[in-house]
Amino acid sequence: MLVLKTDAANFRVKFEEILKRGKMDIENVEDIVKNIINEVRERKNKALFEHISKFDKWTPIKDDDLVISKDDMKKAYENLDEDLKCALHLAYDRIKAYHEKQLPKTWLTFEDNGTILGQKVTPVERAGVYVPGGKAFYPSSLLMNVIPAIVAGVEEIVVTTPVIENKPNQLLLAALYICGMPKAFKVGGASAVAAMAYGTETIPKVDVITGPGNIFVATAKKLVYGEVNIDMIAGPSEIGIIADESAKPNYMAIDLLSQAEHDEMASSIMITPSEKLALKTKEKIYEFLEELERKDIAEKSIEERGAIIICKNIDEAIELMNEIAPEHLEVVTKNPFELLPKIKNAGAIFLGENTPEPIGDYIAGPNHTLPTGGSAKFYSPLNVEIFMKKSSIISFSKEAIEKMGKDCALLAKTEGLTAHQKSVLERLK
Amino acid sequence: MLVLKTDAANFRVKFEEILKRGKMDIENVEDIVKNIINEVRERKNKALFEHISKFDKWTPIKDDDLVISKDDMKKAYENLDEDLKCALHLAYDRIKAYHEKQLPKTWLTFEDNGTILGQKVTPVERAGVYVPGGKAFYPSSLLMNVIPAIVAGVEEIVVTTPVIENKPNQLLLAALYICGMPKAFKVGGASAVAAMAYGTETIPKVDVITGPGNIFVATAKKLVYGEVNIDMIAGPSEIGIIADESAKPNYMAIDLLSQAEHDEMASSIMITPSEKLALKTKEKIYEFLEELERKDIAEKSIEERGAIIICKNIDEAIELMNEIAPEHLEVVTKNPFELLPKIKNAGAIFLGENTPEPIGDYIAGPNHTLPTGGSAKFYSPLNVEIFMKKSSIISFSKEAIEKMGKDCALLAKTEGLTAHQKSVLERLK
């Protein structure tokens, strides 16, 4: 694992590599994905049947074959291990409670001249949630995408997921039941994104598509952006840690590994002024590695993309971390809250030694769908607002237009828009 | 101009054409735009010089040639007609006051077990605003894009605009001065979008790009989406009017024309249960048309894309309008506010006969950059939040992790993520 000092001659070169992490090469798959989207757009369910046959190892024959029924969900839920059921319900309740606090409100303001201005907030009618399938199914992803849409008040939530060999994952079914979904659809990949963007005989066209996925799904989301809204284009997972000498090396080590185990392309970066912590943490990483089920993935990620950076002081650590703009940021210092004003770019900020990043993946409440690859500089975590939209409200009284109409007409005239000008002047007659 | 009744046999066919309005055929220009972007990405200012030479009829020689200086802005401002200066300041102040009300706040919540959850709001560091140039320069567009970024607290706002023959529009310069911009950059089209997305020797890389533009600009924005955030992909302008028999035909006619004059591709649609209003409005439209400077554009738009729909009642009007999801919606009925609960999809809603749409273009305060082509179903008006992003805040106490850690570890184990599991269990030891 790379250990770097910020005063080393080659530091900036190495650091630039970290900054360039996680850029996905969408161009390579763009033509394939465009074809898939066009096929679904033109031949709808028929195209879906073919794609499923090709990728998911089963062949739907009629439209209904695409549907996962509520009955199947209920059965899976009833067979669920009791402890797991409790854990999923706890997660559901906490995620719901957090996202309820995000709900924006409609507001109005008034002026003495009779002007009323405001902003109306309305949920979108239909939201589409993509859930990756096969062996990598994560029930937590379903909760994190569906709950914000429920809280937003979306009327119809369309869940799509690939179902390999037509054998649905029982945990997925149970999680769908917990979320109260009336049905879901067995279709995955770029085909699922296309189906939700344009609609088919069975799958309704939605207004917004969210959810993680591989590069085909990410590319499809980018291509249909504008036809529908999307949450973000997410790449491999990342963790950044800012720690001082008070941090425990075993905590730091296992937290870095918790991102590394996601993906060989994941990035785990710690920045600390404590050389002692740096070296001890590195040691602990190799100890823990041996105990992991996903050791191979975690090891490759740590070796190729992990880094511990030894810096001059905490201020420098924060500056560098703001450049990295990590998806997850742990701050493990004596008084982590005092650093919050300076932390500008991070998807989620985990404060203190009792807040390991996995707490945020499952149980804390905030969303675990977070901007990656430095896009925390401009994207927010998945939240209820992606499932809502605003309309401006404007109401002028006779008095208001008499007061401001002349200025408005002058601006319209200046722009050469005489119908705009006349439209105001007509009211001033 | 098309007049349609909802009970006519061919109504749905005609209505579907309205729903399909304003789809831009980005694919046709995608390859050209990709080339432009790649050139700017690779050769930076050198590529910009070539593109300016090709499209803007002048040839920059050195990097500084791209810069519009504060001095030039000041001179233009000082030469501005006094009435126009006042009108622009009024617009500036009202737009600023409205957008200040949109500012989201950082919040924190607490649980008795010591858990702290919240959401931190931070402005992006740099925002890029594209301003169309040449004969179609609209000072109002500059205000509507720059002011939300100022209100959001963005440190550096990068304004780019094409300057034909290197002769800057004096009104643009004055408006830049009113906005307090320290400088701006003379580059337009897809090149400007690429420069802001990737940075050049002179133009800094930004986090978010907003602003209207032609199909090349729109396509470039879509292509760089993900590298930076963008506001939306906007198409031709539109107005929808819901009116009852109380509406004045001359008001309705000139308001419909005020969108039609923007663009031959603009759509102006009125839906009313009053056949009398429908026919009178149509008559008035042809009268007003003769008086417009942009008669040819407005006429083509009204003939090819305008429509008056006679419906059964106001409820049907609202239903149809929600399907259309117009950029601008005027509601001119006896009591327009009582219809607000049912209005779901519209960029901006103008209530009552004294609120003509142009009031919202210039002076009311809400943004005039609004979702078009039906995308009001999922996009919001341009607002301060595009220039800000959120970070989740999570802090667990020892007590909190002891209470919830077991459930969290179980979920991690269920997903096969043993480092996640251990990261939590390590704290429970």
TrEMBL record, chains A, B:
Gene3D superfamilies recorded: 1.20.5.1300, Nitrogenase molybdenum iron protein domain
MF annotations from Gene Ontology: histidinol dehydrogenase activity; NAD binding; zinc ion binding
Reaction(s) this enzyme catalyzes, per UniProt: L-histidinol + 2 NAD(+) + H2O = L-histidine + 2 NADH + 3 H(+)
Catalytic residues identified in the record: 327 (proton acceptor), 328 (proton acceptor)
Pathway terms, separated by semicolons: Amino-acid biosynthesis; L-histidine biosynthesis; L-histidine from 5-phospho-alpha-D-ribose 1-diphosphate: step 9/9
Binding-site residues for substrate, renumbered to this chain: 237, 259, 262, 328, 361, 415, 420
Binding site for Zn(2+): 259, 262, 361, 420
A biological-process GO annotation: L-histidine biosynthetic process
Keyword vocabulary terms for this entry: Amino-acid biosynthesis, Histidine biosynthesis, Metal-binding, NAD, Oxidoreductase, Zinc
Cofactor needs: Zn(2+)
Enzyme's top EC category: oxidoreductase
EC number: 1.1.1.23
SUPFAM superfamilies, A to Z: ALDH-like
Cofactor binding summary note: Binds 1 zinc ion per subunit.
InterPro entries noted in UniProt: Ald_DH/histidinol_DH, Histidinol_DH_monofunct, Hstdl_DH
Role, per record: Catalyzes the sequential NAD-dependent oxidations of L-histidinol to L-histidinaldehyde and then to L-histidine.
Similarity annotation: Belongs to the histidinol dehydrogenase family.
Protein name: Histidinol dehydrogenase
Gene that encodes it: hisD
